[in-house]
Amino acid sequence: MKIVIIEDELPSARLLRRKLEDLGYTVSAVLQTVEESIEWFMSNTEPDLLFLDIQLADGISFDILEQVKPSSAIIFTTAYDEYMLRAFKQNSIDYLLKPIEDEELKNAIEKFRQLRHPKPQLDLASFEALFRNTVQTYKERFTIKIGQNLKVVTTQQIECIYSENKGTYLYTNEKGNYLLDQTLDALMPQLSPKDFFRINRSTIVQFDAIKNIAVHSNARLKIYLKHYESDELIVSREKVTAFKNWLDN
């Protein structure tokens, strides 16, 4: 069985690839962006099975499906909430919730092996419409508990969100630093892609907070924010092109 992974977070892609190889399967390609994926499909035989992350750095995976229209069986990987997962089930589209559990991965592949002949006809158009409508409203504020008090932070006040020592922190333009109870993977679908970009595994930046961008080593970029200072504000090499496209939008 020919398998392709489309996932913009390299650690997640590597972990999924390792899990598949541990089950005895070979991954033909790991792709990270909409643009790269379309180019790959144009010059390669389509896979039997496609693991597809919904939210990519330069768009959403439905942009790929609209252009290349593969007949591959699809397993979506997602960090979306329970409402979105119900939508997957109702539309007969299989999914794996991140972080992906070994047994769930094994069961999902077995399900598609049983359904390969004939392949299931999935109503991707209806699901895409449902997906776009669901995520059209993005989070506008965070309510953060500080001791016995609650503080409301709007997304306009955010300079960046970063992970450190197994915690996730929100930093504001008032130099406030607050601990959140969600991971970066869970937060990204809630934030407007027009305003926020995940520059690397550990950091999400807000567009209006960027003060300067400098060329860094190994074809990477270094971000300087208006208040938050860190040597970790590096756009990873595989995300530089998508980041530049984001700046131009």
Automatic annotation (TrEMBL):
UniProt keyword annotations, A-Z: DNA-binding, Phosphoprotein
PROSITE patterns: HTH_LYTTR, RESPONSE_REGULATORY
GO molecular function list: DNA binding; phosphorelay response regulator activity
Domain Response regulatory residue range list: 2-113
Residues the record lists as 4-aspartylphosphate modifications: D53
Domain named HTH LytTR-type: residues: 142-249
InterPro entries: CheY-like_superfamily, LytR-like, LytTR_DNA-bd_dom, Sig_transdc_resp-reg_receiver
SUPFAM superfamilies documented for this protein: CheY-like (SSF52172)
Name of the protein: DNA-binding response regulator
Organism: Sphingobacterium siyangense
